[in-house]
Every structure is written in C-alpha cells, then in structure tokens.
Amino acid sequence: MPYVITGGCCADASCIDVCPVDCIHPTPSERGFLDADMLFIDPDSCIECGACRPECPVDAISPDHELSPGLLPYLSLARAHFSGDRTADAAAGPVAADLPSTVRPGLRVAVVGAGAAGGYAARELLKIPGVQIDVYERNLTPHGLVRFGIAPDHPQTKLVEAVFPFTTGNPNLRLHLGVEVGRHITHAELMSFHHAVIYAAGADGENRLQIPGGDLAECAGEFVAWYNGDPRVADRSFDLTHERVIVIGNGNVALDVARILTSDVDRLARTDIADQALAALGRSNVREVVVVGRRGVADAAYSYSEMLALQDRDDIEVVFDASDLARDDEQRTAIDAPSAPLLKEKVALTRRVAG
Ligand code: SF4
Q1: What pLDDT shows up at residue 101?
Q2: 69 Cα–ligand 1 center, Å
C-alpha cells in the first residue's frame, strides 16, 4: 500500500526532505525537476511510513487504499514514471545549490511581487539568519496568481498559500501592499534601501495575436482574473452571447477557460468563483468551446492532471478531431520512447477522455 501523490501536487518539494528512503522524485537537484508538473513516489520503494503526508501543503498525498476511483490513475502514473528510463531526468540539474546558511546580519533584500515566486523566494531567504526582507505587492492582498490565477474549481491547489510567509507575522519580513514598483517607488529607491532586489512579479500585460482580427480576441489572463475576482478587472465584461468560443492554445490555462465556460453553473456555484462571473456565466449562451493548438496531443502543453479533470464529467463532453489523434500515430516512436513514460500516459489518457 504505497503512498501516492495526486494531481493537486504543486511540485513544491516540501515532502522530499522527510522521506527516509529517498523515494520521491524528481528532486530539486535532478534535472527533471525543472519541467516537472508534479512529483512521484516510487511505489516499489515506499515503506509507507506516512512522513510525507503532513508535509504536503496541498494535501495531495494519500496511501493508495484511500484513493477515490478518480484518483487511482495517479498510482499507474507513478508506476509508469519509475518504469521508464530516468537517466536523463535523474541527471544532476542546475538547481542543486543551497542558499548559504551563514548568518548575514543586516542584509536587506527587496522582493517585488507577493505571488508564488515571491513567496518561495521569501521563504528561502528567511532561512538565512539575520536577513531582513521587504516584499512589495501592487495588489491589496498577497498570493498573486495562487489567488487570482488558479481555477476556482481547483481549491486544493490554492492550499499552497499556506507555505508562503506573508501572513505568518515573521518579524524579519515586512509586506508592503498596494505599492507598485515603477509607479509608487522606483528601482533606484529600492536599491538605496536594500542590498539586492528580486523581481518576482511575472509577466504583465497581454501579447496580442499579430493576425487580422487579433485585436478582437480577449486575453485569457484577464478572463481568468475576472472569474477569480481580481479587483483590477472586476468591471470587465465578456461577450458570452454566442454559442461557440474559440480558445487559441492548449495549455492548462486554455483548458481551465474551456472548462469554466462549459461547466454547469450549479457546479461553479459550489466554488469560490467571483459573484459577477457566476452571474454572467449563468446567463451565458456558450455551448461549445473549440480549443485550437498548433500541434497534436503529444506536443500539447496541458498537463495529465488537467486532462484528468475532464474525465467522467457529466456536464462536459470532450470531443477530439480524429485527424488530431491520427497525428499522434505519426509520432509513435517518440510517444513510446522509454525515456518518455509520462508522455505515453498522457496520450493514452487523452484518448480515453476523447472516448
Ligand atoms: Fe517516503 Fe514514507 Fe512518504 Fe513513502 S510514505 S514516500 S517512504 S515519506
């Protein structure tokens, strides 16, 4: 009865250090960690001690006998991960270096952005005795995309907020909300008060499609922020009067948008979706969302967990164009490669969801 990591995994790696038999991979010192959507427990090595379970910030670890039928595929996924050729993924990665643990009295660091990247940066810096951190956040609340980017029907993933030190009252961290660098304070002013500045503010603004009609397209980032209650776009409205919506791109955000647009509104009402979005979606005429990607399923950017969230939904029918699935036959060698066991699982899952 091994323990199993499931789809809420944020690859935060908090569980890795406590495992007495080193069976959670990839680790931050392995190359595969950089691209990992999630971590895996080796079912054949796990001694079922349970030490990792309370460390997981998003409650994504369970013994296999506690998994609901919908989560059992994650045990198969873990078996697939460790059955493949892991030589490349297990090679030493570039993130092996630990921060210096020497006392640095008086070192002052500014962190710009109180989202996930800023949260992890601050958390690591606070491990260095003597460091003082000032975090500058333009919103009036911390946690950035954890709050305004993760879909409201994925509440488990939002639990990762608990690992960030913004609201813990740590005397070595000061949080400045409602302060925008470049507007309320300059980089030069930050440097005059700190020894270093870490920009963890992510990419801002939209990247318009450079095609005829591209200016008519809505920005997925704004739509996501809108249904998550971001006050900066609370006044936005989106045209939901048509039956068909085209989503350009097939990463996780694209599938989030497609899922929210097609979900039964009563199901959405049980989430923390923004009230104005719920009301608008309740009036929506959208019945079909066409997701358009450049290449086939094998190259699609969505994660295994994102596709699994569409399986067995009674309010959403997932339909694939047969020619898209046929494209994967052309890539059969890559899909079946021993070094890509997770790709093979993702393609197989997609075919199952597609019926
Ligand atoms: Fe490691 Fe124990 Fe967790 Fe198994 S249950 S992965 S042995 S910490």
Answers
A1: 60
A2: 22
**CATH for 67:** 3.30.70.20
Q: Which of 199, 233, 248 is the last residue of a domain?
A: 199
Residue 43 lies in a domain: yes
Token pair recorded at residue 103: 């006392």
The answer to whether residues 222 and 234 touch, using CB atoms and an 8 Å cutoff, is: no
Helix intervals (H) in 49-201: 73-83, 87-90, 116-125, 144-148, 155-158, 187-193
Name the nearest CA neighbour of 116 among 145, 153, 75.
145
Give the pLDDT score at 237: 92
> Is the domain of 179 the same as that of 244?
no
Residue whose C-alpha is closest to residue 77's, from 7, 172, 176: 7
Q: Using the atom order of ligand 1, give the atom closest to the CA of residue 15.
A: 8
**Which ranges of 263-336 would DSSP assign to H, the alpha helix?**
265-269, 275-282, 304-308, 322-330, 332-335
Q: How far is CA 160 from the centre of its chain?
A: 10
**Number of folded domains that form the chain:** 3
* Residue 282 domain flag: yes
115 CA → ligand 1 middle, Å? 29
Q: Rg (Cα) of the chain, in Å, rounded?
A: 22
Per-residue pLDDT tens over the stretch 131-177: 999 999 999 999 999 999 999 999 988 999 989 999 889 999 999 99
CATH number of the domain where residue 323 is located: 3.50.50.60
Residue 18 CA: nearest ligand 1 atom is 8
Distances (CA, A) of 314 to 112, 263, 267, 309: 43, 9, 11, 12
Domain membership flag for residue 88? no
In the chain, which residues have pLDDT < 50?
96
- What ranges make up the beta strands (E) of the chain? 3-5, 24-25, 40-41, 61-63, 108-112, 132-137, 173-177, 196-199, 244-248, 288-292
* Closest C-alpha to ligand 1, atom 2: 49
Domain hosting 128: range is: 108-199
